Amino acid sequence: MEKKCPECRKKGYDVIFVGLYQAITDDKGKHVNDENIVKWTSEHTPVPLFGFWDFAVGPDKTIGGYVLSGKEQGTTAGKIALNILSGKKPGSIFPEIAERGKYLFSKSQLKKWGLTIPGHIDSQAEYTK
């Protein structure tokens, strides 16, 4: 692990969290495939990689964590859109946040990094490969 970035620990980096990376572009301004980005990052990181979204958790992606679901976000956005389409003024709609997250972890990434989930979180968690 230290061979990839011998300075990382010295600089105080213990983990990396990835959020949204779908806006990354190449040198020609073309969007880079998000699956390729998370897989490359997972392969090359010198420290454990955690994520904020359920679609970024998996064997060749992130370890996971307390993640949000795109489905929940979309459902909330859809409800707001329906209010607008039914005639409600957008300025009168209170902001809404899809607050349902869940613990989701990749078993293979946990094994790769030699990590275990504490019992109080493990009992609430879902796991993928």
If you had to describe this structure to a student in words, what would you say it looks like?
The protein is an alpha/beta fold. It has one domain (6-128). Helices cover 33% and strands 16% of the residues. It contains 5 helices and 5 strands, in the order H-E-H-E-E-H-E-H-H-E. A 3-stranded mixed sheet has the order 3-4-5. The longest helix has 16 residues, at 70-85. 15% of the residues are buried. The mean pLDDT is 89.
What tags apply to this protein structure?
129 residues, alpha/beta, three-stranded mixed sheet, two-stranded parallel sheet, 33% helix, globular
The radius of gyration computed from the alpha-carbon positions, rounded to a whole number of angstroms, is: 18 Å
Element order, helices and strands?
HEHEEHEHHE
Q: Give the tally of structural domains.
A: 1
Mean pLDDT: 89
Poorly predicted tracts of residues:
none
